[in-house]
Hints:
By secondary structure, the chain is an alpha+beta fold. It has helices at residues 3-9, 23-33, 53-62, 91-108, 122-132; strands spanning 45-50, 74-81, 112-113, 116-117, 138-147. It has one domain (3-150): 3-Layer(aba) Sandwich (NADH Oxidase), CATH 3.40.109.10. The protein contains five helices and five strands; from the N terminus they run H-H-E-H-E-H-E-E-H-E. Strands 1, 2, 3, 4 and 5 form a five-stranded antiparallel beta sheet that branches.
Amino acid sequence: MDATEAILSRRSIRKYDKEPVSDGDVEALLNAAMHAPSAVNERPWHFVVIKDRKTLEAISQISPTAPMVKYAPIAIVVCADTTLEKFPGLWPLDCAAATENILLAATARRLGAVWTAVYPFDERVEGVQKLLGLPAHIVPLCVVPVGHPAETPAPVDRFDRACIHQEAW
Ligand SMILES: Cc1cc2nc3c(=O)[nH]c(=O)nc-3n(C[C@H](O)[C@H](O)[C@H](O)COP(=O)(O)O)c2cc1C
């Protein structure tokens, strides 16, 4: 699958079958994440890979929009070391780019994944920090459950000319 096909066919996958995700697949997703563009090349990201069922279940309890995490074989928690941020406000942008790379790499490998929000919801950030023993300067942006898809939502054509402006607004 080429990059454009992965971008245009990517959908959020929230149902997974029982097949485990291989360590090789997880490493490929993290390798993709670490090749995202990063402001001033600060690359503040850290990733916590979770397979423990109790921890996955606890994440679903912390985040009301992440019920699928407890059914996923693994989840990747995308975090930032905020001490590496060179200008305020950049770390979520870097980590968002890394997250999108995870989603695209998952699509290309026929895996299913979805971005579930942690940041900027204080309760979720604090809950995930406590659960995973993250120091205060390590802030979780999102949790991405990953598995072999048990649903196949069709690609959607979202091209919208109304969003395009030539030369000025
Ligand atoms: C910043 C961000 C936060 C999101 N948070 C959640 C979430 O907490 N739970 C969830 O099920 N989906 C979440 N999503 C996925 C969106 O709901 C999804 O991308 C959107 O509905 C479009 O559908 P698609 O990804 O299938 O194209 C999030 C996406 C982004 C970019």
